[in-house]
Amino acid sequence: MLYLMDINPGLLIIVFAMVMGMIASGAVRSAYRRWSRVPNSRGMSGAQMARAILDGYGLAQVDVEMTPGTLSDHYDPRSSTLRLSRDVYGGSSVAAVGIAAHEAGHAVQHAMGYSPLKVRNSLVPLANLGSQLLFPLLIGGFLFRITNLIYIGAVIYFVALLFHLFTLPVEFNASARAVAWLEKAQGFPPDEMEGVRSVLKAASMTYVASALAALGQLVWLLMAGRRR
User: Fold this and answer.
1) What is the pLDDT of residues 40-87, one digit of tens each?
2) Are 166 and 120 in contact (CB under 8 A)?
3) 88 C-beta neighbours (distance < 10 Å), count
4) Which of 36, 39, 112, 212 is found 20 to 30 A from 2 (Cα to Cα)?
5) pLDDT band, residue 3 (cuts 50/70/90)
6) Element (H, E) at 63
7) pLDDT tens-digit map of 25-41
8) pLDDT at 1 over 60
């Protein structure tokens, strides 16, 4: 019992997040496989759905392109380009239009100045810099027993945690937009909307797991610094 009390709580959070991440990743693959076999009743491809949504918001300047990989779909705000994986771009499955609508949601967020997206994007340079500096600081802190270096690493990692936290409302909002567009504007039937929600909900849990992992690593760093 005393041994369990000595375990860094951050480590427990990390382990929990890892398990949750594996479960969520499995759920995404399972939901995607199932609903990628079900054609949508409108007969629209993912690219056509994305284009329809973007044009509906007057975003003709946003290009829709195919990108390599599976589930590699994303919106690039730097070039105003929506990139869809091959199966989503040309596919007319329920999963394809759901994912395409979700990614189009990010383009709409960008155009409308959605606050959480603006904050997340502003954190990207700091998060990237932190990822480069974090391990040298930790190695120096633990190797030379310099506690302040560990705390500096924790401060840097806090920025990464903020990035993950602001990612959550961005992703949830994009999914909510996708569901509303497909259900209300496009009139997709309830059984197909079940598939859309299943795919997007499973994907959202991977972001929750990432945020929990970042929280756990921050707690682990702070507790490790106190024990130096």
Assistant:
1) 999 999 999 999 999 999 999 999 999 999 899 999 999 999 999 999
2) yes
3) 30
4) 212
5) very low
6) strand 63-67
7) 898 999 999 999 999 99
8) no
Q: Within its chain, how far is the Cα of 10 from the centroid? A: 22
| Helical segments of 36-146, H only | 46-56, 86-90, 94-112, 115-143
Report d(CA 167, CA 214) in Å as an integer: 12
Whole-angstrom distance, CA of residue 97 vs CA of residue 168: 21
A 10 A CB-CB count for 138 gives 19
User: What's the pTM?
Assistant: 0.84
Give the structural domain span for 166.
Answer: 2-226
Closest CA to 131 of 165, 102, 158: 158
Q: How many structural domains comprise the chain?
A: 1
Instruction: Quote the DSSP letter at residue 75.
Output: E
Instruction: Output the furthest CA–CA distance in the chain (Å, rounded).
Output: 64
- Catalytic residue among 103, 183, 192, 194, which? 103
Handedness of CA 46, 52, 57, 61 (dihedral sign): positive
Chain center to CA of 69: 17
Report the chain's C-alpha Rg in angstroms.
Answer: 20
Q: Known catalytic residue: 192? A: no
CA distance to 158, 161, 204, per residue, from 168 (Å): 16, 11, 8
Indicate the SS3 state at residue 93.
strand
Amino acid at 26: G
